[in-house]
Prior knowledge:
Keywords: Membrane, Transmembrane, Transmembrane helix. It comes from Candidatus Woesebacteria bacterium RIFCSPHIGHO2_01_FULL_40_22. By secondary structure, the protein is mainly alpha-helical. Among the domains are: about 60-105, Membrane-bound Lytic Murein Transglycosylase D, Chain A, CATH 3.10.350.10; about 145-195, Roll (Membrane-bound Lytic Murein Transglycosylase D, Chain A), CATH 3.10.350. The protein has helices spanning about 5-10, 15-40, 70-80, 85-90, 160-165, 170-180; strands spanning about 60-65, 105, 150, 190-195. It has a two-stranded antiparallel sheet with strand order 1-2. Helix 3 crosses helix 4 and helix 5 packs across helix 6 (about 170-180). It is flat.
Amino acid sequence: MTLKKFLKTLKLNESSISIALGAIVLVIFGVALINYLSGNKKGEIIPPIGTENTPTTLSNKHVVQKGETLWSISEQYYKSGYNWVDLAEVNNLQNADAVAEGTELIIPSVVPKTVTAYNEATPPAPIITPTEKATITSTNSEQAISGESYTVVKGDNLWKIAVRAYGDGYKWVEIARTNKLANPDVIHSGNVLTLPR
């Protein structure tokens, strides 16, 4: 079969090949998803529901080797370094940081400890120090408006004008209605607005 005939055959069967490849991808994805969701690792023994962590039978004594610490010994016997406290307590060790080589330790039969939760440190509260009060000088645009009309200056909006004219920002609607503003959001410097009283 020549390459040309092969490609022609492939082109004719393109939809069938696409369906088959799509099915294979879905099967692979499904198997991967099931394995991921099951979470079981091969060789892992999961205790039945309702059983507690019971201590395993441990040898009663351990002779400390060079370089060992209570943490490493605890990991060796309990699969958790957090039981080093139990080792120090049972053996009445004055300095748990330094265990002499050749020391014979009693290995207690206790439940292995695990880390279940931790407390997040809360950030310290900010320290607020009193400072001198700043004096605000009122500018011309912040003074009360008492007249029946007002000429808009740069930075004005209907809310600010209503607050200065009536002491109530919600009166901007009346100003917009009285002046028949098509878009109350757009006012320009130099516009003269009638203020209803």
